[in-house]
Write a structure and sequence with these properties.
- The complex is a heterodimer of chains A (817) and B (337).
- Chain A is α+β, with helices and mostly antiparallel strands and 817 residues long.
- Among the domains of chain A are: 214 residues, Aldehyde oxidase/xanthine dehydrogenase, molybdopterin binding domain (Aldehyde Oxidoreductase, domain 4, 2-Layer Sandwich); 193 residues, Aldehyde oxidase/xanthine dehydrogenase, a/b hammerhead (Aldehyde Oxidoreductase, domain 3, Alpha-Beta Complex), CATH 3.90.1170.50; 141 residues, Aldehyde Oxidoreductase, domain 4 (2-Layer Sandwich), CATH 3.30.365.10.
- Chain A contains 19 helices and 34 strands.
- In chain A, the strands form 9 sheets. Chain A has a 7-stranded mixed beta sheet, sandwiched between helices. In chain A, strands 32-8-13-14-15-7-34 form a 7-stranded mixed beta sheet, sandwiched between helices. A 4-stranded mixed beta sheet of chain A has the order 18-26-27-30, sandwiched between helices.
- In chain A, strand 19 and strand 20 form a beta hairpin.
- In chain A, helix 17 packs across helix 18.
- The radius of gyration of chain A is 27 Å and the shape is globular.
- With 337 residues, chain B is an alpha+beta fold.
- Chain B has 3 domains: 58 residues, Uridine Diphospho-n-acetylenolpyruvylglucosamine Reductase, domain 2; 117 residues, Uridine Diphospho-n-acetylenolpyruvylglucosamine Reductase, domain 3 (2-Layer Sandwich), CATH 3.30.465; 107 residues, CO dehydrogenase flavoprotein, C-terminal domain (Enolase-like, domain 1, 2-Layer Sandwich), CATH 3.30.390.
- Chain B has 12 helices and 12 strands.
- In chain B, helix 10 runs antiparallel to helix 11 and helix 11 packs antiparallel against helix 12.
- The two termini of chain B are 32 Å apart.
- The chains are: A alpha+beta (817), B alpha+beta (337).
- At the A-B interface, helix 3, strand 29 and helix 19 of A face helix 8 and helix 12 of B.
Chain lengths: 817, 337
């Protein structure tokens, strides 16, 4: 798909020289370490696990959107031959949840159900057929409560509450922050514009349905194999709910068949499999059906948004006020963080000197929303980039030039105290504008064809952990065998993004061996140091740095032993090509294995640990924990569209995407992440919607929930921009999430360029285009989108005086960390 | 994963055996050809036959053969791939082979049969759901329930005819041979279909099987099929437009049939629209008039993908595009799969 590659030097800019170093592994288009296992079908996914005497479990879904459980009778199910155990909410009453502030879930519903599909009971049996038959024998008597199915209903209804905690009524969380006096900013502006947007919810649609296998050994130790992105958090939740000491629980993350944020919570089926294994003494497997995945959900929050921005005639933004309302579904999940994220990263792309954010999340009787690729930031980015496109149109500004002029400064603070390090946004814009011929096409293509531009930023890992602690976010251990083999151990979870490969690459680079000489052991709470998990685009930066530190410690020992042998000092040694040799005379050296033997003889067993703790966050206000990151990646995207004005069909022939990756540890993997993001972004923009009718999910199947196939996937040209970030391992930043963000707004901007209508809500279905075209023909506002924001009494904002947005030399690190 | 319910499977070798089993087991039995529609529906308990009569072992149900009259005989077990790629059929009945080639995905066309596609179950977003989902809405009248959720006041089921090939067969005037315990009979394809979503195969008795699909000679007939769906693969039609027509030497239309798919519980013939073509050349205003005449009879409801208003609005657009394609006029095919 990508026409630009690793060999295309002209597309790779190097802005920094402070980290420049010759590398032999980093930056090369190497194969993923697990590629052969995956393409030959040898990789073990959770559902591939078959253990002797294994039982199969199924969960009974609620048929009510909101109801009290009056009675559950499992006796007939228990009596069915082949049934081994039946459990209900009473067997697992302890609450859990991914965030310490939202411990609102139980493995099976206790007293009350909150959405259709919520698990009410679970059955373990000799096979799935028997378990399924047993479910039908469970009698549940419900007393229905009023279902609350939308943001508006949740705000209006204060008597009937879905949860008993939160901000009040059915508002889970309300946030209000103000950085500087925005009213003063609007007064200074030459032009002020307000817009409303809606971004529909959608599911991750990972190819693999969630699956877990639990085994409780006779010596009282529980092992859970699961398709999870966060084995550490699952470990904690199991210990809490099952009341077992963590030392008796082992969680192993299998190769997940896609995650995208959808496997980042502790889930019902994981806890039920564990409990049923403890009861039956047999291994128990639960694999969700696709429908159950739509109920487990944790997908993109539907968000209603309002934004007001003031600008000077000269282009500068004077102030922004942003409001978001999130439809959270029935439980907390990551929702408090998501709410903050819908307001946090507005300031990281363009200079916004005064900024006010008000956000709230409501509970509704739907499967809980959570983190999906971009976690709470694609929605506001969608709003902002269309809003800015409209402002540029109103003011007669070139959208590419305006964005470049307003781009944030490198090594600066934003109004909300996010610390920007390197920023390749201008270069990204230049690259996509040039590659796409944007200047020649914008407002110049014939009716029905158009181009649109949008930009974005995303964090390379959250600076704060999910539960408050002072410990590192990622730990790695490197062991060197006397035969020359190297093993790296890390709790990180490769969900397809290539984090196992990154571990092998950076360790191989430091030790001067080949990646295939490095064994990678990950995501096993018994064997590997803690890593918090594969979320927030944190893994490359955090585990990469931890593994580098561990490898460097081992290398120090190797160099000390080798220096004596080679008659020099350690600082005159280098490791490359499987050798350790003298820098001043590269012909003089030792094979790596020989150096390892000398070092082991001298120091004992060769192993070292490294860890990574993100830098301290400059913000000192409540809520300052969401948004800070070691570094931000930047993306610019141009989408070209063909719109059929008679049918409203949108075809996307090509997408150009330029991404500031800091440094590509492996350009093929980075391009893969960018292409996957474009595909997923277009799916959200054009088709995907988690929608409800008669109080239940309308289309919980992969046939009826529309998502693009590769026939709908355009040609994608990926351009990598390198800025060598001082906080990244070898200068790297994130790639897994950021490139999704600009795709939906670039598409909508392109549609406006093509046929002159604004679609301010996703997905952009053909009927909306026709409706907007009809409005245009009637002389009405050529727009489809939300018409109003519900009235809410917002809490008084926390006021914070913003810093200067200018480049601050004190933020430039003095040396490579 | 979803599991199949228990059933007995009979792999029969002859039509007689198949018919006897169907007759002996009555409503408990059903035939399985390719199984691409039946098995997923059994997993969701939309269909719960206790006896499956597998037709794959009956040799005479296969094949695509030219007939003496110049027409063609399609064995119902011919796969959709075989029909769509058959060179002589492609030349003679391009609308049909195109329709067969846009059913679902390549893998399912390799398994799915042309006879199965003629008999494919009607679809509805209230019905094509798992047992537990349907239980949450207290089921619908098509299976286990009382009401039609699409039109709660209606006495009938409004599930949608979702075959791509049926509208083309109807437009081409094809017939089917049915064999049952009382012997065989030949009926037009249009008479296979009932007038509601439950009894959608009213023209065929449950113990009859289709043994032959008979296409009349293509001599002089042109055909085209256009399909509206969200994606270029997998999706069932949410509107199908089949047109077959014959033109005189002077270019005027001698005979025409327009049949719409997926806007009713059966392939919907629109003779009034077709009549507007007869005696005229396929000029833009003639095309517009015929297309417009298809708007009113089409009655999509809110039980498929996309909105019913949109699908209704697309009826004349797609009819006009189909006619323009026959007329050799430029027709935007960008998203007309």
């Amino acid at each position: 798909m990508s026409t630009n590659g690793y060999d295309d030097r002209k597309n790779r800019t190097n802005l920094g020289s402070h980290l420049k170093k010759e590398t032999s592994v980093v930056g090369r288009p190497l194969m993923k370490v697990d590629a052969m296992a995956k393409v030959t079908g040898q990789a073990t996914y959770a559902d591939d696990i078959h253990l002797p005497r294994m039982a199969y479990a199924r969960m009974l879904p609620s048929t009510q959107p909101h109801a009290r459980i009056v009675r559950i009778d499992t006796s007939k199910a228990e009596a069915l031959p082949g049934v081994l155990a039946v459990i209900t909410g009473q067997d697992l009453p302890i609450k859990y949840g991914i965030l310490p502030v939202s411990q609102d879930e139980t493995a099976l519903a206790v007293d009350k159900v909150r959405f259709v599909g919520e698990p009410v009971a679970a059955v373990a049996a000799v096979d799935e057929e028997t378990a399924e038959r047993a479910l039908e024998l469970i009698e549940v008597e419900y007393e229905p409560l009023k279902p609350i199915m939308s943001i508006e209903e949740a705000l209006e209804e204060t008597e009937v509450r879905i949860q008993e905690y939160g901000h009040g009524g059915n508002i889970h969380k309300m946030v209000s922050l103000q950085f500087g006096d925005v009213e003063e900013g609007f007064a200074e502006a030459d032009y002020v514009r307000e817009d409303l947007f809606f971004y529909q919810g959608n599911n991750h649609l990972a190819m693999e349905e969630h699956s877990a296998v639990a085994y409780y050994s006779p010596d009282g130790k529980l092992t859970l194999w699961s398709s999870t992105q966060t084995p550490h958090y699952v470990h904690r939740a199991l210990a809490k709910v099952l009341e077992l000491p963590p030392s008796r629980i082992r969680v192993i993350a299998c190769h997940p068949g896609g995650g995208f944020g959808g496997k980042s919570d502790p889930f019902h089926h994981e806890i039920c499999a564990a409990k049923l294994a403890m009861i039956t003494g047999r291994p128990v497997k639960i694999t969700l059906t696709r429908e159950e995945v739509f109920y487990a959900h944790r997908g993109r929050h539907p968000v209603l948004m309002w934004v007001k921005t003031g600008v000077k005639k000269t282009g500068e933004i004077t102030a922004m006020h942003f409001r978001s309302m999130l439809d959270g579904g029935a439980y907390g999940s990551y929702g408090v963080a998501t709410t903050y994220y819908t307001g946090a990263l507005q300031t990281v792309t363009y200079k916004i000197p005064r900024y006010k954010f008000e956000g709230l999340r409501v509970f509704t009787n739907k499967p809980p929303c959570g983190p999906k690729r971009g976690h709470g930031t694609p929605q506001p980015r969608f709003a902002l980039e269309i809003h800015f496109d409209k402002i540029c149109e109103d003011m007669g500004w070139d959208p590419a030039e305006w964005r470049k002029q307003q781009a944030c400064e490198p090594f600066s603070l934003t109004a909300n105290y996010l610390r920007i390090t390197t920023i390749g946004l201008k270069e990204c814009i230049d690259k996509v504008v040039e590659a796409s011929g944007f200047k020649e096409k914008f407002r110049k293509l014939p009716y029905g064809r158009g181009v649109g531009l949008a930009c974005s930023a995303y964090l390379s890992g959250a600076n704060l952990p999910i539960y408050w602690n002072d410990m590192p976010h990622s730990g790695a251990m490197v062991k060197v065998d006397r035969g020359g083999g190297v093993t790296v151990y890390c709790g990180s979870t490769d969900i397809g993004q290539g984090s196992n490969s990154v571990l092998a690459y950076v360790v191989a680079e430091v030790l001067g061996v080949r990646p295939q000489d490095v064994a990678v052991v990950t995501a096993d709470t018994d064997l590997t140091p803690v890593d918090l998990g594969s979320y927030s685009s944190r893994v490359t930066v955090m585990t990469g740095n931890a593994a580098i530190e561990a490898a460097q410690k081992v290398r120090d020992q190797l160099f000390q032993a080798a220096a004596d042998e080679l008659g020099t000092t350690p600082d005159n040694l280098e490791a490359a090509g499987g050798r350790i040799f003298r820098r001043d005379d590269p012909g003089v050296g030792l094979p790596f294995a020989k150096a390892a033997q000398l070092a082991e003889a001298r120091f004992g067993t060769l192993a070292a640990v490294g860890s990574f703790t993100p830098p301290k966050t400059p913000g000192r206000y409540k809520g300052a924990g969401v948004g800070p990151s070691p570094s931000y990646s930047y993306t610019a995207c141009v989408v070209e569209v063909e719109v059929d004005p008679e049918t409203g069909w949108v075809r996307v022939p090509k997408v150009w995407i330029a991404h500031d990756i800091g440094r590509a540890l492996n350009p093929i993997l980075v391009e893969g992440q960018a292409e996957g993001s474009v595909y997923m972004g277009l799916g959200e923009a054009l088709m995907e919607e988690q929608v409800f009718r008669r109080n239940l999910h309308k289309i919980p199947s992969m046939l009826d929930y529309k998502s693009p196939t590769f026939l709908e996937t355009p040609d994608i040209e990926t351009i990598l921009v390198e800025t060598n970030d001082p906080h990244g391992p070898f200068g790297a930043k994130e790639a897994g999430q950021g490139p999704l963000l600009p795709v939906p707004p670039a598409l909508c901007n392109a549609i406006y360029d093509a046929v002159g209508v604004r679609i301010d809500e996703l997905p952009v279905t053909p009927d909306k285009i026709l409706k907007a075209l009809e409005r245009k023909a009637k002389g009405q506002e050529p727009r489809v989108g939300p018409e109003r924001m519900p009235e809410v009494e917002w809490v008084e904002p926390i006021y914070v005086e913003p810093p200067s947005l200018e480049h601050d030399p004190s933020l430039v690190p003095s040396a490579n960390p | 994963m979803l599991r199949l319910p228990p059933f007995d499977y009979y792999g029969v070798q002859s039509v007689e055996e198949a018919v006897k089993l169907l007759s002996d087991h009555g409503p408990e039995a059903t035939v399985v050809a390719g199984g691409t529609d039946l098995f997923p529906k059994m997993k969701r308990r939309q269909m719960e036959p206790r006896v499956l009569v597998g037709l794959r072992g009956i040799r005479e149900l296969y094949g695509i053969q030219p007939q003496e009259d110049g027409g063609y005989r399609l064995g119902p077990m011919a796969t959709l791939t075989q029909v769509s790629l058959h060179p002589a059929l492609r030349a003679a009945y391009p609308g049909l082979t195109y329709a067969a080639g846009v059913v679902s995905s390549p893998q399912l066309r390799n398994a799915g049969t042309i006879g199965g596609n003629l008999c494919v179950d009607t679809r509805c977003t209230y019905y094509d759901q798992s047992y537990h989902w349907r239980k949450a809405i207290n089921f619908c009248m098509k299976k286990d329930g009382e009401i039609c959720w699409v039109a709660p006041g209606s006495p009938r089921c409004w599930a949608v005819s979702s075959s791509d090939t049926a509208p083309v067969f109807v437009a081409l005037g094809a017939r089917v041979r049915l064999v049952g315990p009382e012997g065989e009979r030949v009926i037009p394809v249009r008479e296979l279909y009932g007038r509601d979503g439950i009894n959608f195969l009213a023209g065929k008795r449950p113990d009859e099987i289709i043994t032959d699909i008979l296409l009349p000679p293509a001599e002089g007939w042109e055909s085209v099929y256009l399909k509206l769906r969200r994606r270029g693969s997998f999706d069932f039609p949410i509107l199908g437009v089949a047109v077959a027509l014959r033109r005189n030497e002077d270019g005027t239309v001698a005979d025409a049939r327009i049949v719409l798919g997926a806007v009713e519980s059966y392939p919907l013939e629109v003779p009034d629209a077709a009549a507007l073509l007869v005696g005229n050349r396929l000029e833009p205003e003639v095309i517009e008039a015929a297309a417009k005449a298809c708007f009113k009879p089409a009655r999509p409801l809110d039980n498929t993908d996309l909105t019913l208003y949109y699908r209704k609005k697309m009826v004349p657009v797609y009819v006009a595009r189909a006619l323009r394609q026959l007329a050799g006029q430029p027709s935007d095919q960008a998203r007309t799969a």
